[in-house]
UniProtKB/TrEMBL annotation:
Protein name per UniProt: SDR family NAD(P)-dependent oxidoreductase
Organism: Leucobacter muris
Entry's family note: Belongs to the short-chain dehydrogenases/reductases (SDR) family.
CDD domains: SDR_c
Pfam families in UniProt: adh_short
Domain of life, per lineage: Bacteria
InterPro entries reported for this sequence: NAD(P)-bd_dom_sf (IPR036291), SDR_fam (IPR002347)
UniProt keyword terms in alphabetical order: Oxidoreductase
Amino acid sequence: MAYLALVTGASVGLGTELARQLAERRVNLVLVARDEARLERLARRLRHDHGVAVEVLAADLTAHDGLERAARRVADPDSPVDILISNAGFGVYDGFESSRLSDERRLHELLSWAPLRLAHAAIPGMLARRRGWIMNVASVAAFTPSGTYGAAKAATVSLSRSLNARYRGTGVRVTALCPGLLDTEFHVRMGEDHLPRLPRIAWADTRRVAREGLRGLHRGRAVIVSDWRYRLIRRLIPMLPDRLLERATTTGD
């Protein structure tokens, strides 16, 4: 039996890599993002390379109509989604005192409300079928005082943990994948001046993060901190004094 996965934020970066690795596993796909032309190019490549069925759903998940279209697709009983991956995201670089409130609202709607809405659409059908997998892409920023981005990701981690605890005995598994810095368009889209000036070793490999995330999802792990360097950082965070952690993580927020 072929499974069907819906991946948001599929047009670039980690979303594209998650879609590719799912296609390698012969999972059919629904690709969701705003850029329809990019989605279509990716869909053609995945169909050609892996022989899977791929749908394209162009939608802005920060807009009510776009999110509801995606939710209806997730809940469609005639073509059920077995694997839901909420990966779409962006960041607000400006400090809290100077950022636009509309950007802050869009950030939280995309990073925390959209995963909740899509999970709410997916779970009833998954429970009825007694199987389903939901991955919400969060961040190691969820474990630090790193501004509104970290706050939104912390909500996603908390949601994922609570849903996994509630449903893990039913065949439905919910996971928060928490990567660190990835060399994708995420930072480029905020502007070249906003790219973190860090050594190459600080950047995690997108392929490895996707692979670890899918493996952890299959195993039913509630939270996955991906890549060894960020797992190490995660263990160190509770040992750091609050003021030191705050200074290290709020610069430029």
